[in-house]
Amino acid sequence: MNFETVIKKMEYLKFQHTPTILQELTDTAIKEEQNPLQFFDKLLGLEIDFREERRIATSMKISGLPKGMYLDTFDYMFQPAVEKNKIDYLSSCDFIRQKENILFFGPPGVGKTHLAAGLGVKAVEQGFSVIYYTVEELLSHLKKRSDVPVSKQRRQSYVKNALVVLDELGYQVMDRTETHLFFQFVNARYTKGSVIITSNRSVKDWVGIFANDQMATTAILDRLFHRSHIFNIDGNSYRLKDFQLMQNGGAQKE
User: Fold this and answer.
1) Using CA of residue 197, residue 200, residue 202, residue 203, what is the dihedral sign?
2) If we measure between CA atoms, which residue out of 209, 143, 203 comes closest to residue 172?
3) Domain ranges of the chain
4) Hey, how many other C-beta atoms are within 10 angstroms of the C-beta on 71?
């Protein structure tokens, strides 16, 4: 038996990474006097790690999550209103298993999108299907299929995925048709899947978002707030902080 024969068998079993480094792994095993079980365990471990990295990279691309937003890069010192222990708890993704929601409220620039996307990344890493939309993007998709009830659109990502991250609720006022479609979306996911929403408008202002329709607003809030985790972030803007640093740096140079 030679390497070529073993590699063909590995490829038949759909090994994707370790066939290319089999010689290197074998040389190392001989040098370190590994027993067969140690060698096989290392080979399988490397193959699993490679597949997991590929899976995460592919899922991240499909999800549309903003790039570079991870929980471990969030500045809790700058934004003390965010309780790190609560975010750490949610990063276990039990809220997805329990079909619960998360809502981040606060003015622009306080890190709502960063936290929402960071939790989305954690969900991808743990094997959950995730999709990211701005509210404008979601409404565009919903309006294209408005002739079919959202609850019947089971193949669409905003229905079938375990987690939908919905950004920028409140930047635009919805008309009655859009409000009705948004209610259908929320209702279709109620107790069936999780949603993370970021909003720059407080709850008392939501009726103004949803066509001044009190009944629809109440129905939406009722479903979103049932079994939800709520964060009110009242802090300084990261973007303004970066702008001020640039201004200060420029002033010093002058």
Assistant:
1) negative
2) 209
3) 3-61, 71-240
4) 18
Q: Give the Cβ contact number of residue 236 at 10 Å.
A: 15
- The three-state secondary structure class of 217 is helix
Backbone angles phi, psi at 81, to 5 degrees: -65, -20
pLDDT tens, per residue, the chain with 254 residues: 678 898 888 888 899 999 999 989 999 999 999 999 999 999 999 999 999 999 999 999 999 999 999 999 999 998 988 999 999 999 999 999 999 999 999 999 899 999 999 999 999 999 999 999 999 999 999 999 999 999 999 999 999 999 999 999 999 999 999 999 999 999 999 999 999 999 999 999 999 999 999 999 999 999 999 999 999 998 777 655 554 444 455 444 44
What is the Cα Rg of the chain in Å? 24
Of the candidates 116, 120, 143, the residue with the CA atom closest to the CA atom of residue 131: 120
What whole-number distance in Å separates Cα of residue 37 and Cα of residue 97?
36
Six token digits for residue 240: 């303004």
Non-local (6+) Cβ contacts of 24 within 8 A are none
Q: What is the CATH code of the structural domain delimited by 71-240?
A: 3.40.50.300
Other CB atoms within 10 Å distance of the CB of residue 144: 8
233, 76 in Cβ contact below 8 A? no
What does the chain come to in residues?
A: 254
Helices vs strands, H then E, count in the chain: 12, 5
> Nearest CA to 133 among 169, 187, 180?
169
**Model-level pTM?**
0.86
